[in-house]
Amino acid sequence: MNKNPNIIIFNPDSYRGDVLHHLGNAGAVTPNLDALVENGAVSYANAFAQNPVCTPSRCSFMTGWYPHVHGHRSMKNLLKDYEPNLLSVLRSNDYHVWWGGKNDLFAAENKDDYSKICDTKYSGEKIFQGYFQPPAIPLEDPRHTVFYRGVMTREDGDEKHLNRDLSKVLGAVDFITSCSDENPFCVYLPLSSPHPAYAVEKEYYDLIDPDKLPPRLPVPENDLPLLDALREAYRSHDVSEDDWLELKRVYYGMCARVDAMLGQVVDALIHNGLYDNTLIIFLSDHGDFTGDYALPEKTHASLQDCLLRVPFIIKPPASFHAREGIRNHLTELVDMTATIYDMLGLEPGYDHQGHSLCDSLRGGDREIRRAVYAEVGTRPEEGHYKNPKGKKRPPTSFYGMQSKVNRPFREAGTYAVSARTKKYKYIRRAYVDHNELYDLDNDPGELRNLSGGEEYSEVEKSMEELLLDFFMTTADVLPHKQDSRNA
After folding, report:
1. Residue 40 contacts residue 319 (beta carbons within 8 Å)
2. Which tens digit of pLDDT belongs to each residue from 224-270?
3. Domains in the chain, please, with CATH?
4. Cβ(274)–Cβ(176) under 8 Å?
5. Three-state SS for 101?
6. Rounded to an integer, what distance in angstroms lies between the CA atom of residue 261 and that of residue 271?
7. Nearest to 290, CA basis, from 252, 343, 337, 240
8. pTM of the model
9. What are phi and psi of 165, to 5 degrees?
């Protein structure tokens, strides 16, 4: 048996933190995740991403640094090969790193560049399971502009559905089945699901009972102008309540599909006698609106809990003696890196900013964090922030519309940061007079902005001080290697 445990990092994209049956959501169909938590895993019910967008969040949790430390705030500033990160540290400690899935993490000009960060970059075959894409939604139908695509069936259609995620999962299963016992492995599975467009196979759609789905959150009064502009472009207010419910049902089906794919990986570990000596981590990079606030997908400028709260489930190796179950501590995704280094006894050679969860995994109940933090957006005229693909997309496509609406707001500056305790959430914006303060005990949906009110002035001041302390203590990292001044 390997001295160090094997590692599975199962990383779906855009998976909301509340779509888990074991956390009390009766509409969620997640039997494999629920079984993990019943058999050695810990589920962190209050885990938060550091950015609501794919690339910045992934760069953050793979380094253990907050996005501002090295400017990882955009889709186009990915990790360079000189930046320390978890995968590189594992490779330097004799792990075989197997990567199957999307990038959104590492700056790669060509396929050979992946050899700098992993041993195997698996491409896989495109798998057709007999499902066809649903009929196209007409452009005049408002469901089209909120990224709804529908239910895939086995009836003949014009376009086959090629399940790219399943291809990567089956590749991981083959790797697990055939791996030798010489070195431990780290399987990194950054999947595309349940990222919109909202489309799912009928077998997963049929698992979801629409009567059990939680109601969506309404549009707040005096909301951020950018969100109002997006709702207008998406024609969100023309989408019926039944259609919003249908969109949510499809999204929950996509999450059920992710759960089923995780089950295939877990089964492979069990059947090959590797489960007990494997650390499994399930986390998403960010959440999804799924109709909350009459919005689909996510934004590059707002920091609602539905975008930041994510699943974070850790199943340590059996030798670690964890106490399985649910933890309600506030945790952040940067804590993943710190936890792995601590659990494995690795000295990564650089300062990281997460907190190890090892004591919590064993059953410790002390508070880990007073608050969690996130940041998003751009400074004015920060042209290199933008994704050049935006202007090239068809104007009637979802991202074409989103990019057009975002452009003037981005050029004026959308940078915002948030501090969230269990009781309050404060969002400070750098370039617009639209700070936000929410009393989460009385307003968990973040619908009533209390910022600027006299009644909560002392609370707002204390939250501002939290943000000041946060930036003071995380502004940079000091390299471990000291430079000589004697030459």
Report:
1. no
2. 999 999 999 999 999 999 999 999 999 999 999 999 999 999 999 99
3. 6-370 (3.40.720.10)
4. yes
5. coil
6. 16
7. 252
8. 0.97
9. -65, -45
